[in-house]
Amino acid sequence: MLISDGGLATELEARGHDLSDALWSARLLLDAPEEIRAVHAAYFRAGAMIATTASYQASFEGFEARGIDRAQGVRLLRRGVELARAAREEFEDGRRRWVAASIGPYGAALADGSEYRGRYGLSIAQLKRWHLPRLSVLAESGADVLALETIPDIDEAEALAGLLDGSGVPAWLSFTIDGSRTRAGQPLRAAFAIAAQVPEIVAVGVNCCAPADVAAAVRLAREVSGKPVIVYPNSGEGWDADRCCWTGESRFSVGEVGEWARLGAAIVGGCCRVRPADIERLAAAVAVG
């Protein structure tokens, strides 16, 4: 089993960075790139074998709103990959480590929580046109794989799969879910089926969801797609949008990983509120198991 990293933005915030910006962690590609590299290194040091870049909420429209032109936006997207690769080079123990270029959903670029609703009112063709420029840059950035992550909607998954099909660019496709459905309310079986016929999608699964939703999703993803399954849930805490704070306690338990592995999970990590110490415990549990 491969161990992925945890929440990049979570750890950047823990280091004192204010990410209350429409670009979220991507802002630090411009303002504090070495901090991003340091967080990637912290996750590698904790036992992660995959670093996911700070491009999740990056978009050319978002960059433009900050006065960043297209050429500089391209450089910033590439910088995200370069920082993860530089962090990887700090470790010379002969173990293979991967860099995944994050491609978040259209809703993330809106910075209004739309990625947890989906159903943007855009056609598949419109979503393809929006995703293509960023996907094209990151596909040629030197990353090992594209991370099509936190996808809430079947239409958006179809758009991304259509862009990948025949490209030869490897990617994983990961949905954000609520129970047994996508955040947009569609059956997970139909969502996972999108990956089955696209060779470039090398793994399929879920992220940015409650840990309790993972086991059933792993079983279904494996059954429907026949591909390796990737899962990286949140801590299980809740976000209070009115007070702008997290509530409740973490329910991210390494004790569940054995069950996820038994059901077919091949790659396991964490998303929001999962930190290097959590990944360290996860890696230790996998090593023992």
From TrEMBL:
Residues 1-286 form the Hcy-binding domain. One of its GO terms (molecular function) is S-adenosylmethionine-homocysteine S-methyltransferase activity. It comes from Nocardia terrae. Gene3D superfamilies: Homocysteine-binding-like domain. This is S-methylmethionine:homocysteine methyltransferase. Keywords: Metal-binding, Methyltransferase, Transferase, Zinc. GO terms for biological process: methionine biosynthetic process; methylation; S-methylmethionine cycle. The keyword Transferase applies. It holds the Pfam family S-methyl_trans. The keyword Methyltransferase applies. Its cofactor is Zn(2+). Binds 1 zinc ion per subunit. The gene is mmuM. Zn(2+) binds at residues 208, 271-272.
